[in-house]
Amino acid sequence: MNAPARLISQLALAGLLAAALPAAAAPAQGAVSTEAGQVAIRHEKFTLANGFEVILVEDRRLPLVAFNLWVHAGPRNETKGQTGFAHLFEHLVFAGSKHIPRGEFDKYVDAAGGTDANGSTNFDRTNYYFTLPSNELEKGLWLKADMLGWMIDEVDSVALANQQDVVRNERRQSAENQPYGIVEEAKYQALYPEGHPYRAVVIGSHADIQSIRLKDVKDFARTYYRPNNATLVLAGDFDPKQARALVQKYFGTLKAGPKPPEVRVATPEITKERRLIVTDRIELSRLSLAWHTPAMFAAGDAALDIAAHVLGGGKASRLYGLLVRDKQLAQSVDVAQESQSLSSVFGIDVVARPGASLEAIEALVDAELAKLAATPPTEAELVQARAVIQTQLLQRMEKVGELADLVNHYNQMAGDPGFVGKDLARYAQLTPAAVSAAVAQWLAKERRVVVQALPGEQVLPPEVPTPPMPTKAAKGERESLNAPEPWRNKPPAAAKAKPLTLPAAQSFTLANGLTVIHSPKAGLPLVIASLVLRAGQAVNPADKPGLAGFTAAMLPEGTTTRSAQQIAESVAALGATLTAQAGSEEARLDFSGLKASTRDGLALLADVVLRPAFATPEIARLKAQRLAALAQQREQAPLLANAVGNRVTYGAGHPLAENALGTEASIQAVDSAALRGFWQAHYRPERAALVVAGDLSEAELRALVEPLFGGWKGEGAAPVVVPLPAAKPIAARTVVVDKPGAPQTALAIVAPGPFAAAPDAAAIKVMNAALGGLFTSRINNQLREVKGYTYGAFSGYAMGRERGQFGIRGSVRTDVTGAALVDIWKEIAGMRAKPMGAAELNRVRNAQLLSLPGLFDTNGAVVAGYAGNWAAGLPLSAITDLPKKYAAVTSATALKAAKEHLDPAQLIVVAVGDKAKVVPQLEAIGRKPESMSAGQ
């Protein structure tokens, strides 16, 4: 399951900025109110007789209900020698329960049209969540109640062994085969002493994960997985009276457990600076500074949150401007106040450019910290930080699942699900002097840990063997905490579903040819706009790979009216984001912010696309940044596998075969003339669409767009559009890229695929959902849940206007690379051999069809959908037609799609891993691998 969720203290509202919020409340059907600049969440809380807490957040914006169950246990509750146990237990909860057989939980969620289904563990809690269509309220409660009350009935040595393998694969993927993963671990071990529950981070160690026994699992369940130690938040479209009755029905008979032991741990104190060097398989060095700081919501927490934004909260921040823009010593800067219940950590991470000195970077950071400690930040910096935090919080409330999680967060961490008003007040009351004083008090040099991450050998603890997985449980392994209730064996039926409707859009065209696509959404005062252009990698000149991406990246870096710094400061002052990037076939410039900032945000968007400066100093800076990014890609095996996969799929000379960043030579060769030439040829109104979703009427949008974009005219004659070369048929082959010592092999199994306009696109997607698109798919189930080879392996079709690719991707344990491929090929053969049975078809088809409202539940999702369809050449109706297209898929059409678009004879295997260990496995299964270098 997922890594720890980002804590809300980083996103808490920074002030009661009535001027930035509309005076009127959100529509009555929404739970979130912004009346008079005050943000509030309407909710109701009650407690069952067994101690189970329930919070109802009625929100009628969409026909969805979010189920968010927090168990108040995490690593803070682990005992010595059991690091990673809380997270391992999270996995076990999904492995089956008394009334829901192993492997069926997620299938029920899929069949019901669930979205956002997962679990997460952070230091202080474990979270289980999904969102279902509102007519499945009772089924969602049935599932959640069984997870909490009857999981212990099903868990046995087989389930435990399987999830130990899965979690250890997650550790390999997230810590050992991820740049700076072991560095983070070393930082926490330096911050916290032996015995402190935060010392080992959430994932734990291989030795401790493998040492967990079934008795430990049962003891943990008896202590912590009881109704009096859990809270359920329901947020969405339901009748509160009915919800109360159903919660009582499903949770009321669960037996309360003993009161969990209190966690009493003193906050560690560092009185002398601790320094360490960690070598890792990385390309770029990194400096990390970390301090113990006040616990969440304690005095000083909010001030340090603001300090983090001032120092490193985006391109307008001090350290970004100093280290990335001015001195050009850093590739990236991240600063955060990571707030937790026992103690918080203030961290500064600076990834250095090649050749930059970490000592020089540290000296500059220290000088900036000393300056902030001595001199309060400006009022403008405070306004910027508050505005950013404010917008991010409101955007989080847009999605009912995240709204539910926010309420649960406040309930546990502050003891009040309606704490949002008091949280806002923390930021509203802050003065510049208070921020400066907090920095002086908490961020002194003698109180910190300093970690230098340097390229070199990765040193890991001795390998912990993976024992053979038991084939069956031993006698006496099962027990119950709650009395048998046979009526729970039958899942509740769904209520009558509401009509399935998706957010529609209208379009109009300006006189200059610019298409404007608009999907209004009243409610929260938020707007997202995306300018999408046919200016992606596909139109790169043959001798200038990477030029499309370089051009897009340059647009926010200065115009004829604003410098890069002025643009960054303007965006930050609005509390908005403005990004630009190029994909395979399109370039996109995205603005996201409050409704009140839309006029200024669209003006910035227009300025950067219509009047780019392409200044020589900024080009030089971006060259260095992109060269460093090219090096960073070599650190990450999955990215490397994808890059090589594109190379072998499309073949030499095809624009999509090259790395999207380009090559070292092509990056070095870029100059202002090349960038301006590409911009003049491809950034034209008749080749662009402005897609807008949010709290804007058509009249309001027209009044904004015409003055800003109506005068845009392409420079010179429009270029002749040359179609992409057709992908040539390819033969199966196996390519190995050596990554010595890698604990996993990153796989990319690729082949050319159909385009977006394929008439059988819906059948392809339903078929792929069964093969490898869903968590419950055949490939992921076999490799993860049955064999324990991987943390996850999935397949998908990328379908564009003139390009298509099929791929299966995932990382597997090095020693089972060959075995994993054998299993994947079996699943492919099975998919092509016979039609799906009725149960599987209904499940995977419903997972596509009934989940649609949950997939288009935010402005960002709506904009991404319509922008992507425009880029792919699909009509506006392509989204609203999805329900009938998915509903029409049959077993026969899905089988036909598999036979036509899933050809094993064309699949190319790219394996990035330890060549010495991988090649013998590949040869043993009849494959003759060829070697390829990362840059070949």
Largest sheet: 6 strands, mixed
The computed structural class is alpha+beta
CATH superfamily of the largest domain: Metalloenzyme, LuxS/M16 peptidase-like
* CATH topology value of the largest domain: Cytochrome Bc1 Complex, Chain A, domain 1
Widest sheet: strand order? 3-4-8-5-7-6
Mean pLDDT: 93
Query: What is the rounded Rg?
Result: 27 Å
Counting H and I runs of at least 4 residues, what is the number of helices? 33
- Structure summary, number of beta strands: 25
CATH class descriptor name of the largest domain: Alpha Beta
Which overall shape is indicated by the principal axes computed on the Cα atoms? Answer: globular
Can you give a write-up of this model?
α18 packs parallel to α23. With 936 residues, this protein is α+β, with helices and mostly antiparallel strands. The N terminus is likely disordered. β17 and β18 form a beta hairpin. It is globular. The two termini are 35 Å apart. The chain has four domains: 221 residues, Metalloenzyme, LuxS/M16 peptidase-like (Cytochrome Bc1 Complex, Chain A, domain 1); 172 residues, Metalloenzyme, LuxS/M16 peptidase-like (Cytochrome Bc1 Complex, Chain A, domain 1); 204 residues, 2-Layer Sandwich (Cytochrome Bc1 Complex, Chain A, domain 1), CATH 3.30.830; 199 residues, Metalloenzyme, LuxS/M16 peptidase-like (Cytochrome Bc1 Complex, Chain A, domain 1, 2-Layer Sandwich). Strands 3-4-8-5-7-6 form a six-stranded mixed beta sheet, with helices on both faces. Strands 14-15-19-16-18-17 form a six-stranded mixed beta sheet, sandwiched between helices. Strands 22-23-21-24-20-25 form a six-stranded mixed beta sheet, sandwiched between helices.
